[in-house]
Amino acid sequence: MNLRMAEEGKEYIIKSIETDDEELDAFLFSLGCYSGEPITVISHLKGGCVVSIKDGRYNIDKELAEAIFI
């Protein structure tokens, strides 16, 4: 399942990131968002969701949330 379907407040492990954009892959990697890392959805918003990765919180749009599989 992807992040859009995740429950708020529950920790998940990232299984894969499915995007064709290499810049986006590099950006996510710099945030610590890659396979094997834990990720928590803090809240769902109309345009995406707020996630916690390592020690940071990030607001990601719905297209990106749909590309991150947990």
What would a concise description of this structure say?
By secondary structure, the chain is an alpha+beta fold. It has helices at 22-31, 62-67; strands at 11-13, 16-17, 38-45, 48-53, 56-61, 68-69.
Here the CATH topology equals: SH3 type barrels
- CATH architecture tag: Roll
**Rg, nearest Å:** 11 Å
Instruction: Tell me the strand order in the biggest sheet.
Output: 1-3-4-5
Question: What is the strand tally?
Answer: 6
Give the overall shape, derived from the CA principal axes.
Answer: globular
Order of helices and strands: EEHEEEHE
CATH level-4 homologous superfamily: Ferrous iron transport protein A (FeoA)
Number of domains: 1
Uncertain residue segments: none
Q: Distance N terminus to C terminus? A: 6 Å
The number of distinct helices, counting runs of at least 4 residues, comes to: 2
Task: Tell me what portion of residues adopts beta-strand conformation.
Answer: 35-45%
Q: What is the helix content?
A: 10-25%
Output the structural class. alpha+beta
What is the residue-mean pLDDT, rounded to a whole number? 91
What top-tier CATH class fits best? Mainly Beta
Largest sheet: 4 strands, antiparallel
